[in-house]
Amino acid sequence: MIAQAILQLRTYSGAKSNESGEPAIVISNITKRFGTITAVDGLNLEIGWGEIFGLLGPNGAGKTTTINILSTLLAPDEGHALVGGHDVVKEPKEIWEIIGLCPQLPAFYPFLTGRENIELFGQLHSMPKQLLKERTDLLLKKIGMEEDANRHAGQYSGGMVRRVSTLMALIHDPKVALLDEPTVAMDPVSRRAVWEFIRELRSQDKSVILTTHYMEEAAELCDRVGIIDQGKLIDLGSPKELVEKYGVADLEEVFVQRTGRNLREAV
Amino acid sequence: MKLQRVIVMTKKDLKRLVREPASLFMLLLFPVVLTGAFALAFGGIGTSGQQNFSIGVVNLETTSAYPEWATRFIDNLTHTEGITVIDYSDNATGQADLLQGNLDAFIVIPVGFGNSCQSYWLAPFNGSTWTNTTIGLYVDSGSLIAASVIPPLVRQVVLTTIFGTEALTLDIPVQVGSPALVLASTLSQWDYMAPGIFAFASMWIIMVVAQSLSVDRNGGLLKRMATTPLSSSEYIISQVASNMVVAILQVFLVFGTSYLLGYRPASDSAGIAFAIPIVVLFSLDSVGFGLITATLSKSPDVATGISFIFIMPQMFLGTFIPLSGVSQAAAAFVPSSYVTNALTTLLLRGAPVTTLSLWIDLLVVAVVGVVLVLVGIVLFGKLGRK
Fold first, then answer.
1. What gap in Å lies between CA B295 and CA B379, rounded to an integer?
2. What is the homologous superfamily of the domain B53-167 according to CATH?
3. Mutate to test the interface with A, among B12, B13, B214, B224 (most CBs of A within 10 A)
4. Shortest Cα–Cα distance, A63 to chain B (Å)
5. Which residues of chain B does A83 touch, with a Cβ-Cβ cutoff of 8 Å?
6. Which pTM value belongs to this model?
7. Which of A198, B54, B119, B351 could form a disulfide with B355 if both were Cys (CB 3.0 to 4.6 A apart)?
């Protein structure tokens, strides 16, 4: 109980506020159930501007459900969440303007080229034509896709599709990026390119939530990570803090120790 | 609603049409192939063009005292327009050819034919002295036209043989007036079917809309777009717009194909111009059915199956298949029947665009289309993105 209370207090620390004093994302006691399964169970979090936050957890822990709630795709059964100061249930239109979602399933149109897929999402956000072209060129170059940009996306490898999918989420320069396992199936070079790209978002004072199964990715990129299991936040802190706290070699060992312990308890 | 987003999504859908072979075939090539196949298959049926009949003849009158009568009969038959005479040396061969479809009819000139003709001229007014014979006439029962046309033709030839051509111009007190110049009907079966085919070609939009929406939903694209400023109504309106463009293309392709294959509508340019909006409005109905199908379907494969629930009744009750009784009453509930009715009135009957029934048909198609799209939007908004 005491540990839970301490954890709850800590969820509200470390988040960087903007000029109006509001954090980028506020999650207050969110619960989401699917039938008898509780996917997210009383989750509390604050994520600041200019922060890359890693959401870690085993499969089915509730990471994607949390992302879906923040992106307005799902309504919470209990609690509330604010993104950029807007309520996810009451003000979805305002939220659509400021978020960029890179879903776990890299949804794209295979009959469009990579460039056309990216530009389509920029156009849906009403970006001016010239700006859209310049930004598309810039992002494609940064992510190493200039040469393949005019091929149909249906011909892309898994890693190329992921890179395009990431740019589709970020083309309109969103204030809040929700990246659900963006580097799955990428080769190391592509992954590094995406990491560099995500770091740039932090330097632009954007807020990024990143879910990943790659612990080295979380350690490399994230300012803070939250480990969730069975819908509950079971640990929170910077990768360094967590490694020191548990006296282990790296974040992966923290993850195994925390989620493994819970599994043992369940048994 | 922002027009720019609608245009962007419409362009995207049109790119799908051009770049995805399945969509391209179903929406543009299939209607052309269908039209071409039906026009070629049914274009010649029912026309009043010159029909030629092959008639086999076996002359058994070889040993008669008056063989010239049989020869004259064959000559007259040979000179009859539209008949090609083929001589046979025996009955069996001719009958076999008739059975195999090589002949339209087979005539057996019996022994005694010359005696019979001669007996008439010896006592034209004393029938009790005539020697009666019967010409054997066998007609292909598989040809309705041959069965109805050949017997009177042969009778005519028999009369000409006995009486000569003068018999047909005898001066008698009763005259038949000179026929008024009536333009004989040149309509083929295809002319009756074409309006229904035009409607039939357009209804495949149902399947393509249902499939493409199901693919988008299963691939996570609808969810992804639901996190952008694109609204449901903008998404649906773009679907409607792109499919209306497709419908216009279909009209031109189907009509163009028909025209190239000899189809000539009875309508003027105003009537043809009127046909375009009614087919385009029908695409609205199809988009609505497609939206409903997509909502009910869990996968593109299921969408294909369910789309036939909307396609088949419209095909059987509202296109090129003749209706009567119950089916005609049921057709009142099928949007495609109003399209076919209007196109038939315009293109077959040649009615002017001011005809009231045309506007009623147009109104029904438009109202049904708007209602279906609205129902589709509501259902799709509730279930389509889940």
1. 6
2. abc type-2 transporter like domain (3.40.1710.10)
3. B224
4. 17
5. none
6. 0.74
7. B351
